[in-house]
Amino acid sequence: MNIILKARTLDHVTVFWNKTQDEEIKRLFPIVSKSLEESIILFEESLKENASSYGKVIYFEGKYIGDIWCYSIDENSEKMAMLSILIFEKELWGRGIATEVTKIFVEEVFSKFDIEKIGAFTYSNNYGSISLMVKAGFIEIENFVEDGIESKYFEIRKAL
Prior knowledge:
Layout: E1 3-7, H1 10-19, H2 23-28, H3 36-46, E2 54-60, E3 63-74, E4 80-87, H4 97-112, E5 117-123, H5 127-135, E6 139-146, E7 149-157
Parallel strand pairs: 4-5
Antiparallel strand pairs: 1-2, 2-3, 3-4, 5-7, 6-7
């Protein structure tokens, strides 16, 4: 697969925001930012030296198709981070791209940060994300309901 992870830029933030306004994407993925302006602020925060988030953009066959990032990075007490991935080019869903990207990115995060595990949430009806988590080596830890939405929590631990 021709997959490349690159550093995020302000242009990527704008494209990502616009692409994720799709109704199907909003139904399957919790989008934290409520506006493009808020997304830009979060991006600028991620560039600071002691940022608690770290992300990359995903290119497939030369085209920008989504983002992968860790947030709530805690190298001190919890020794963990949370993972989020979103491929906004829906015609590429189900092709294994997200699984490969996740494997690559998880290795990078474990080598870059002093953490022992990475967690991830997904909605229980997002079968593609559940499959991705399992194929990338995450273990299902918990099922829960939040804001009336059934969800699942997964974790992967750093290999010793």
